[in-house]
Amino acid sequence: MRDQIAHLVQLQDIDNEAVAVKSRLKVCADRIRDLENKLKDLSLRIQAKEEEREEISSRQKDLEQKIEDATRLAKKAEKRLMDIKTTREYRALQRELDDSKGSIKEMEDESVQCMEQIEELDAVISVLKKEHDEINRVYQTEREEAEAEMKEKEGWLKKLTSSREKIADQLEPRLFNRYEAILRSLSNQAVVPVEAMVCKGCNMNIPPQTYNELQRGDELKFCPHCERILYYKDTGDNVE
Ligand SMILES: [Zn+2]
Predict the structure, then answer these.
(1) How far is ligand 1, taken at its centre, from the CA of residue 199, in Å?
(2) Strand 221-222, strand 198-199: pairing
(3) Structure confidence by residue, pLDDT tens digits, 132-167
(4) Residue 183: which domain range?
(5) Residues 161 and 49 in one domain
(6) What's the CATH number where 102 sits?
């Protein structure tokens, strides 16, 4: 039984390490995903701003064309004004010309507004692109580091898995199954030491009788409170 208990303790050590390795792997993967999401988000924002800029820019070009056309027509009208003989006709054309100048002025104002908006958008896009570049730099470096670490950790995990199989082979199947069942139901802690009569799984005192039997190590003992498999750990200051 002592052998079996020792194997159970080894198994728990391996599983503890595997949990730590897996959690580190998750941290690496999460960090990479987090940076990737930030980059994706920034790219989308840049794209949206560029589309907005494109729309305003084409509106502005359209306005410039309309201003040019209207100005040309207005100039023609001004020339015609000189040839007009009657006051009535003159006034009518003059009014038309005033309206046209008014609308040219409006279009010019809107065109200026467009240009201002484009300038603002250019500034925003430039800030976003700079941010994107910075995060991308961090991402490239961190991804390389994380991938190297993950590769190493995955290799280590494989080694742990094969050691685990070897130890499991040396365990009585009923013990191994029991271990697995407790491991699953009690947050990855199936085998815990008892130090100074305290179960390190639940931090409760175990009965003296159980403690004495545990020290002898002749049979498998379970914590009466949390039901984990116990093993005796000499801390040098045990209560006898
Ligand atoms: Zn316990």
Answers:
(1) 5
(2) unpaired
(3) 999 999 999 999 999 999 999 999 999 999 999 999
(4) 174-232
(5) yes
(6) 1.10.287.1490
At a CB cut-off of 8 Å and minimum separation 6, what does 186 contact? 201, 226, 227, 228
Contact 185, 25 (CB under 8 A): no
**Residue 1 covered by a domain:** no
Q: Are residues 141 and 179 in the same domain?
A: no
Find the 171 Cα to ligand 1 centroid distance in Å.
22
Work out how many domains the chain is built from and give that number.
2
User: 190 and 122: one domain?
Assistant: no
Is 240's pLDDT higher than 80?
Answer: no
Residues 155 and 221 in one domain: no
Contact of 194 with 214, CB cutoff 8 Å: yes
Measured in Å, residue 218 CA sits from the centre of ligand 1 at: 19
- Write down the pTM of the prediction: 0.73
Tell me, what amino acid is at 240?
A: E
How far, in Å, from the CA of 17 to the mean position of ligand 1? 21
